Amino acid sequence: MNYIELDKKHTWHPYNSLPTKTKILAVKKTFAQTIVLEDGTELVDAMSSWWSAIHGYNNPKLIEALEKQANIMPHVMFGGLTHEPAAVLCEKLAKLTNLPSIFLADSGSVSVEVALKTAILYQKAKGKNVNKFIALENAYHGDTLGCMGVCDPNNSMHSLYGEYLPNNIFTSVENIEQAIIKHHKEVAGVILEPVVQGAGGMKIHKPDYLKRVRELCTKYDIIFIADEIATGFGHTGKMWACEYAEVIPDILTIGKCLTGGMMTLAAMCTTKQISDTISNSEIGVLMHGPTFMGNALACSVANASIDLLLESNWQEKVSNINKIFSEKLSSLEGIEIVKDIRTIGAIGVVELNNPDFAQFIQDECVNQGVWIRPFGKLIYSIVAYTITNEELNKICDAMIYAVKKANIQFKNMEQDR
Ligand SMILES: *Cc1c(COP(=O)(O)O)cnc(C)c1O
């Protein structure tokens, strides 16, 4: 039995049934910006593996770091023990984020869970019993139950879990100031993705609101959590999207491209004031500790990935990517099925009026040699910074071709009506 049949029998895929009802492509290997399928088909990757593989696949520097660490010590428990890769990584992150107290987590969702717990513990340490959060409409902050509690109840999986999920306060970017003023006594903090809401609809906001959120959170002593798991490490054109408003949050969560897409690792970074307040209170400790916390392999790869990024001229590369996305995708303006086209940094988005043609467009892009996975009515691409102009043009051309072809179908259907 080949493994694709085994997969159908036993293996859950993300957000899917078992066996899957949608087509699953079998991948044999990867290199640079290319995914090679079992039948030898090569696809240029427009997704950078859920926005994580910023240096492309099989990067020799990352592989070297992994191999070297594997021979020294792949993993050791982090309770009561420490090691060089983890300590060096925490110092790197402290410098890079201006937030000196780092908790290493094993996935983005876990780092958000730890961020929410930290905010609640901070308030408890200050004598405040609060457990609600303010979040944005359309918010996405991860799939675990605590994270789901701060995902928008109207367009997430809330309805499935009902009472199990906490009730939080959701507001628009326009109304967030009023929401903080109104609810500051009930909440431990505010959680949001700065500037770009990624999985929450690839929405791009003017950064000004972040300044007011920062001011109000300081004024009321509530915790400002910036979830930069998607936006971080240069995706928006700045290292952190918060830099667009020149604000530093109280807690920053990072993940996705922390290891250049090679290993699962995330982090919660916070201020000395918060770590001191919890540590010097009766609570005394941050009660969280994953088995694989501070995994030495992942930390070594993260160190290599950050070095690689900082040594590269990533700003120039991201701005070149943005130029190509903006120029090329603008040719879809005015097309009937297209609602909006927007780009920022290494992110290019074509929003359709509805999701009807998403699967068709995905299939057409694959036929054109490009791996795209639309999200609802969003046809988007977030690419590796190492992508060549030729590869990026191929991605844009495939998106344009597929959307135009879908539009012809749409118009034919309209005529038949
Ligand atoms: C992906 C993502 C998460 C969840 O990270 P996982 O590693 O998938 O658990 C949380 N917040 C944001 C903004 C994300 O994009």
Features:
417 residues, Aspartate Aminotransferase, domain 1, Aspartate Aminotransferase, domain 2, 2 domains, four-stranded mixed beta sheet, 14 helices, 40% helix, globular, binds pyridoxal-5'-phosphate, biotin biosynthesis, Adenosylmethionine-8-amino-7-oxononanoate aminotransferase, pyridoxal phosphate
Structure report:
The protein folds into two domains: 3-58 and 313-416, Aspartate Aminotransferase, domain 1 (Alpha-Beta Complex), CATH 3.90.1150; 61-311, Type I PLP-dependent aspartate aminotransferase-like (Major domain) (Aspartate Aminotransferase, domain 2). A hairpin with a 4-residue loop joins β2 and β3 (42-45). The strands form four sheets. It has a seven-stranded mixed sheet with strand order 4-12-11-10-7-5-6, with helices on both faces. A four-stranded mixed sheet has the order 1-2-3-15. A three-stranded antiparallel sheet has the order 13-14-16. The N and C termini lie far apart (47 Å). The chain has 14 helices and 16 strands. α5 crosses α10 and α13 packs across α14 (389-416). With 417 residues, it is α/β, with parallel strands linked by helices. The mean pLDDT is 96. The site of pyridoxal-5'-phosphate (PLP) has 16 residues, from α5. It is found in: Cytoplasm. Keywords: Aminotransferase, Biotin biosynthesis, Cytoplasm, Pyridoxal phosphate, S-adenosyl-L-methionine, Transferase. Substrate binds at residues 50, 140, 256, 289, 373. InterPro entries: Aminotrans_3, Aminotrans_3_PPA_site, BioA, PyrdxlP-dep_Trfase, PyrdxlP-dep_Trfase_major, PyrdxlP-dep_Trfase_small.
